[in-house]
Design a protein that fits this description.
With 578 residues, the chain is α+β, with helices and mostly antiparallel strands. It has helices at 2-9, 36-75, 83-96, 120-139, 149-171, 180-202, 212-219, 244-248, 252-281, 283-293, 297-309, 311-323, 363-366, 370-387, 404-410, 414-439, 455-481, and strands spanning 102-104, 113-115, 177-178, 327-329, 334-335, 339-341, 359-360, 392-394, 398-400, 451-453, 487-489, 492-494, 497-499, 502-505, 508-510. The chain has three domains: 1-15 and 39-205, no CATH class; 257-392 and 405-485, no CATH class; 487-518 and 543-548, no CATH class. The strands form five sheets. Strands 7-6-5-4-10 form a five-stranded antiparallel sheet. Strands 2-1-3 form a three-stranded antiparallel sheet. Strands 11-14-15 form a three-stranded antiparallel sheet, with no helix packed on it. Residues 10-24, 520-546, 563-572 have a biased composition (Basic and acidic residues).
């Protein structure tokens, strides 16, 4: 019970700096290090904790699936098997969530039919449990020092794989049974990856130097230098300009990975939008297929849960459709924005009912090309934002533009920006290729042997789209962020001349309006009348004058050319007579 509490109640955001032996800058071992026997005992206890955590993580995932399947079996009005059959199905579904391929042997033709489409939403459950188990095992407790990272990782993986093997043996006694080839390959790979991420999180997510052999290999690449593999933090409004150069000189690989992840997320998100629009467009067909599969409420709940688990797969299918290659709908049949040729007899399923109609593409189908355009802009924005400092606001909302010379010195060059954009495009293509391979698979034999996007077409298409869009967009965005700041002067007043909204850029003057102000008072002194300039009204708040350095007194004296008395330009009207 204590293990369950530790696994489920630990916060994933625990500060690793609270432990003196965590993070990339951990202290070196002191001369009074523990003896070998104590270190061996420490490794043994860490391995045991990891084994327990791995077994517990696998048991929680398998138990959650078993509870769901058992509830559906109990609520079914016509169960065709007993509790053993329900538990066998639960074990098979849990293995399917790890990428294991299932095989049905009770087919009409007698030929075994594989089921290789893995619901990507189910993969999140074992991945999350493995991550937490490995993180807690590497973190240790407050009473003892934490075990070595390799020991904790190996213990979690070994415990988890043991439960996977037992579940595979149990599920092999019924239909559908797991394929042992995929059991040996995919569940251990998922366990090692998720457990490694958990241990890395427990140690503060360090990005320290790579191993020498790997660093020498990667240094030969033309795109990035791995001499110092550090994180490149994007510039924010609180970042001083003096540290902009050090931030912008971070690893291009780190920036490219972040930009590629953002681009892949934009592609998959756009694919999900396309799937939603298509479901609304084909709402009648989707509803008919949903009602056709089963008539009981428990069966409809099962179909609905399966459709929800396949929504991430459908989003990847939509991304492949927007990129151009589309996806396969059986052997020799495909659906794309230019041409759609689905198989004549698809299985009745709500998501398959939303595939485009057969025939050539229409302008409505071609609008799906906006998805990779947006993804390319996202990649350019993330890349340029990390490598090129822009204007920042400081103080009480007062815009403070750094000098162009300092910002250009801190920014990446055009070549480095282009190389990082190209690397991000390649990484985004690799990510889409992996997602396409995971989102598809066979659903049977013959016409159902190929379902989903083709990874070797989707990956290059994604890389090409992103490169074509992000390279010019990124370079243009870089030039825009390094543009010369405008100088604005508002509200000038020169004796008798008022200028409003004066904007200077180089030698151009815009929005200039002059207005002469005439005002005077006639004095009734004996030596004549003289006009005097009326006091200039106060300037509105926020206006500035380029002549504020002059004296406030009138340096020009009278407005006339001499001091001779002047006659008024108009005689006084005659006095009224009786």
């Amino acid at each position: 019970m204590a293990g369950v509490t530790q696994l489920t109640d630990r916060s994933p955001d625990r500060n690793p700096e609270q432990r003196p032996d965590r993070g990339p800058g951990r202290n070196p071992p002191s001369p009074s290090s523990p003896p070998p026997l104590a270190r061996l005992r420490r490794r043994s206890s860490g391995l045991a904790v990891g084994l327990v955590g791995g077994v517990l993580a696998a048991g929680l995932g398998l138990g959650a699936v078993a509870v769901l399947v058992t509830v559906l079996w109990i609520s079914s009005p016509y169960p065709d098997s007993g509790p053993d059959g329900a538990l066998n199905v639960a074990a098979s579904l849990w293995l399917l969530a790890h990428g294991t391929e299932l095989v049905r042997t009770d087919t009409l033709s007698g030929v075994p039919a594989p089921i290789g489409v893995t619901p990507l939403l189910l993969v999140a459950l074992p991945g999350w449990l493995l991550h937490r188990a490995a993180r807690d095992a590497a973190d240790g407790d407050a009473m003892s020092p934490p075990p070595p990272a390799r020991t904790a990782w190996a213990g979690v993986v070994a415990g988890y794989v043991t439960v996977v093997a037992a579940a595979a043996v149990y599920a092999s006694a019924a239909e559908p049974r797991p394929s042992w080839t995929s059991v040996v390959l995919w569940p251990p790979l998922l366990a090692m990856t998720a457990a490694g991420a958990g241990v890395w999180t427990a140690y503060g997510r360090p990005l320290g130097p790579l191993p020498p052999a790997l660093r020498q290999t990667l240094d030969a690449l033309p795109f990035a230098s791995f001499a110092s593999f550090v994180s490149a933090t994007p510039l924010s409004s609180a970042t001083p300009l003096s540290s902009a150069a050090s931030l912008a000189s971070g690893s291009r690989l780190t920036v490219a990975v972040r930009a590629a992840a953002a681009g892949a997320a934009a592609l998959v998100g756009g694919g999900a939008v396309l799937v939603g629009v298509s479901l609304v467009w084909h709402g009648g067909a989707a509803r008919e297929s949903f009602l056709e599969l089963t008539g009981s409420w428990s069966g409809r709940c099962a179909v609905l849960l399966l459709a929800l688990a396949l929504v991430p797969n459908a989003a990847v299918w939509g991304a492949a459709y927007a990129l151009g290659p589309g996806f396969a709908l059986g052997a020799g049949h495909a659906a794309g924005p230019l041409l759609s040729d689905p198989a004549s007899r698809l299985p009745p399923f709500p998501l398959l009912a939303a595939v485009p109609d057969a025939g050539p593409g229409t302008p409505l189908n071609w609008m799906a090309g906006a998805v990779p355009l947006v993804a390319g802009v996202v990649v350019a924005w993330f890349t340029v934002g990390a490598g090129v400092p822009g204007r920042r606001k400081a103080g009480a909302g007062e815009e403070e533009a750094a000098s162009a010379t300092a910002r250009r010195a801190a920014a990446w060059s055009c070549r480095r920006t282009a190389e990082t954009l190209a690397l991000a495009a390649v990484l985004c293509g690799l990510a889409l290729a992996v997602l396409a391979a995971l989102a598809g698979g066979p659903l049977g034999v013959a016409a159902l042997a190929d379902f989903g996007p083709i990874w070797w077409q989707t990956g290059p298409a994604a890389a090409g789209w992103i490169a074509v869009v992000c390279l010019p967009t990124g370079l243009a965005l870089r030039s825009w962020r390094l543009r010369e700041p405008r100088t604005r002067v508002r509200g000038l007043r020169v004796r008798g001349l008022r200028v409003r909204a004066l904007r200077l850029r180089g030698l151009s003057v815009r929005a200039l309006r002059a207005r002469h102000e005439r005002a005077g008072k006639r004095s009734e002194s004996a030596d004549g009348q003289a006009s005097k300039e009326e006091a200039t009204p106060a300037r509105p708040t926020g206006e500035h004058s380029i002549y504020e350095f002059l004296s406030s007194s009138d340096p020009f004296g009278s407005v006339w050319d001499d001091d001779l008395p002047r006659e008024p330009h108009r005689a006084d009207p005659p006095a009224p007579t009786d």
